[in-house]
Specification:
heterodimer, A: about 170 residues, alpha+beta, Alpha-Beta Plaits, 2 domains, 4 helices, B: mainly alpha, 2 strands, about 5% strand, globular
């Protein structure tokens, strides 16, 4: 757990001003974020430096699903042959259909699990930073700091920008 | 939205009295009236009756239904196509509206997505109902067994099982992921067991900037993936019929025709569900005449498309006069005339002129007339697809008629009650309105003065990555 300075703001402009002032503290990338009830455009208050990676997992999931679908149909033809006219029927159109459906299922599941993982869902640390007042239209600006000096300067920056209930908290950001 | 404060610019998250907005949008979760209990009891009773009759049918055999040689597909299969068709528009519309950033979409999304999930659950059960010896349904599962039985992947019915399963899982996931921010909101606003319930379901979502950014990517990906799945599902349902060399079924146009018909009935279903939700949960300020106007325009487009497809199919058979096919089509003027007229009148004659009128599209009570008419017409259309082709099959010596017995009617009434019950329970425990989407739309809305008038303008967040670069 680390120390996080949390301040509530009534509007985007005030939160953006505070975020700009926090930049002067030279905090590491990703240590300042907002918590809000609606998504704020990237760059309006803070910028998320981490790339969104899970679409690659979705593509991989599609291929894994396609392989599973193809395997299921081909294995069926081989293990349970339907002998017609002395030969086993290996039918291409059904193979394509089953492959497509299972491939799409693979992509959906990869979106669910890959997205969920990157969203940080199903992670329940002992204490997380949160303020339910975001649902009343407030924006919570959070800055992870190290040392009392940095904490004090962050609190001052937030208060100067119009922050309400600015306070230090211990928890995961 | 009546409670909105004047909008000076895109700056404040709270455009309304947030408490009043939350109360209005969460009314279904916060207030439980005696009507809800009555509705649940009534739907539960009909469902119970359907289950009892189904058990009677399972124990007695399929002989208690109206099925007989040569008609072994009837009301159950027509209902299967009907329910799967109804499922089409919810998720599909929601996905298309999300991808196209249609700014009026927010209040429609959740109710439509829930409709898809529950109609699919009902529709997915019907193949098991009509199976006969229902307890052997597990034979359809591909697993190595001592019986040396393996599902035949060449059968369109197996494609159906795959497609419906994929679409059901996809629709449930789409619905659930769309709800996560609202479940987090309910978690923060509730106490006691509800707080624990919503805490578990919201999976720790807090609304950090990084979470929102990834959430949007995930939502977009789901929307992109679900559209081709939706199209494939109803194409495959059509191939259940079209892959057989049965007159009236074996047609190349069947897949797109089924997809169009499914979207057609689905939008009508969405209009009905939205009108009911608006009335029951007093959402007049959220689901405005504008939403019904836009849905009405979509419905009008689909009416024309459906008419075009049906005319095209009919015309080729008319000119070809292939005796086998003509016998099926000519029966529409004979024993199936009432069904045929119901279909044409309800699907085209009533909705087309009505939906051309803005006054009808913007009136909730009036737009329900074409919407209900379409649902009835499409059910008649499903019956017309399934029954005459079997009743007038190639060999005239085995031609026969089909009429469902009380058993089929009871089981299908139970299926309809199951849908109603699931929807009512969902509306009670889950946010039936996409609260976060509505708030996001309000956040992006601003008033813009043009000359002597003020119009609402929606700020679209596009090309964030490019802007950053």
């Amino acid at each position: 757990m680390s120390t996080v300075i949390v301040g509530l703001f009534n509007n985007v402009s005030a939160a953006a001003k505070a975020a700009r002032d926090l930049q002067a503290l030279s905090l590491p990338a990703g240590s300042v974020t907002t918590i809000s009830a609606v998504p704020l455009p990237d760059g309006s208050v803070v910028t998320d430096p981490a790339p969104v990676r899970f679409p690659k997992i979705v593509i991989a999931g599609w291929f894994v699903g396609a392989a599973a679908g193809l395997g299921l149909t081909l294995a069926t033809y081989m293990l349970y042959p339907l002998v017609t006219g002395g030969k086993t029927i290996v039918s291409v159109p059904p193979t394509l259909i089953i492959t497509y459906e299972v491939a799409m299922l693979g992509a959906l599941l990869a979106t669910l699990f890959g997205g969920g993982r990157e969203l940080g869902l199903l992670r329940f640390p002992p204490k997380t930073i949160h303020d339910p007042r975001i649902h009343d239209g407030k924006i919570a600006l959070c800055a992870r700091v190290e040392g009392d000096d940095q904490a004090g300067r962050a609190i001052d920056a937030m208060k100067d920008a119009g922050g309400i209930d600015v306070r230090p908290e211990e928890g995961e950001l | 939205m009546s409670a909105e404060a004047p909008r000076a610019g895109v700056d404040h998250l709270a455009r309304t009295d947030e408490a009043a907005l939350f109360e209005r949008l969460s009314r279904s979760n916060l207030v439980t009236t005696w009507r809800w209990y009555l509705g649940v009891a009534a739907a539960g009773a009909v469902l119970l009756w359907g289950l009892i009759v189904f058990l009677y049918m399972a124990m007695t055999g399929m002989g208690v239904t109206g099925y007989n040689r040569p008609v072994f597909w009837g009301l159950y299969e027509a209902s299967l196509v009907f329910w799967i068709g109804l499922s089409h528009s919810g998720t599909l519309i929601s996905a298309i509206l999300r991808l196209t950033h249609a700014d009026w979409r927010a209040p429609v999304l959740r109710g439509a997505e829930a409709m898809t999930a529950f109609t699919l659950m009902v529709g997915g059960l019907i193949p098991i109902v009509h199976l006969g010896r229902n307890w052997r349904v597990y034979y359809a599962l591909p697993y190595p067994s001592s019986r040396e039985l393996w599902p035949n992947m060449r059968s369109p019915l197996m494609w159906d099982a795959m497609a419906i399963t994929t679409y059901l899982l996809g629709s449930l996931t789409f619905l659930y992921v769309g709800m996560i921010p609202d479940l987090a909101l309910l978690r923060d606003k509730s106490a006691g067991w509800r707080r624990k319930f919503y805490s578990a379901l919201s999976l720790g979502f807090r609304g950090t900037h990084a979470q929102w950014r990834r959430y949007h990517v995930a939502s977009t990906l789901f929307a992109i993936l679900i559209i081709p799945i939706a199209v494939s599902v109803h194409s495959i349902v059509s191939w259940d019929f079209a892959m057989a060399k049965t007159p009236g079924w074996h047609s190349t146009i069947f897949a797109p025709y089924f997809v169009v018909g499914a979207i057609f009935s689905g939008i009508a279903g969405v209009v009905i569900v939205m009108a009911i939700l608006r009335k029951v949960f007093r959402l007049e300020s959220v689901l405005t005449p504008l939403h019904f106007d836009n849905l009405g325009k979509l419905l009008l487009t689909m009416t024309l498309l459906w008419g075009y497809f049906y005319f095209t199919e009919f015309l080729t058979v008319w000119y070809n006069r292939n005796p086998e096919e003509w016998e099926v089509f000519s029966s529409y003027a004979g024993p199936y005339l009432p069904l045929f007229l119901t279909m044409i009148v309800c699907n085209f004659v009533i909705p087309f002129p009505m939906l051309c009128l803005k006054r009808v599209r913007r009136s909730i009570s009036l737009i329900l007339v074409p919407a209900c008419s379409i649902v009835i017409g499409m059910y008649a259309e499903r019956l017309l697809i399934v029954v005459p082709s079997l009743a007038r099959r190639n060999d005239p010596f085995i031609w026969a008629s089909y009429f469902p017995t009380w058993v089929e009617f009871s089981v299908m009434a139970g299926a309809a009650a199951m849908f109603v019950l699931l929807y009512m329970l969902f509306a009670k425990f889950f946010p039936i309105m996409a609260i976060s989407d509505i708030k996001e739309r309000l956040f992006h809305a601003t008033d813009r003065t043009i000359g002597g008038t003020t119009v609402e303008s929606i700020a679209q967040v596009e090309g964030e990555e490019e802007a950053r670069a």
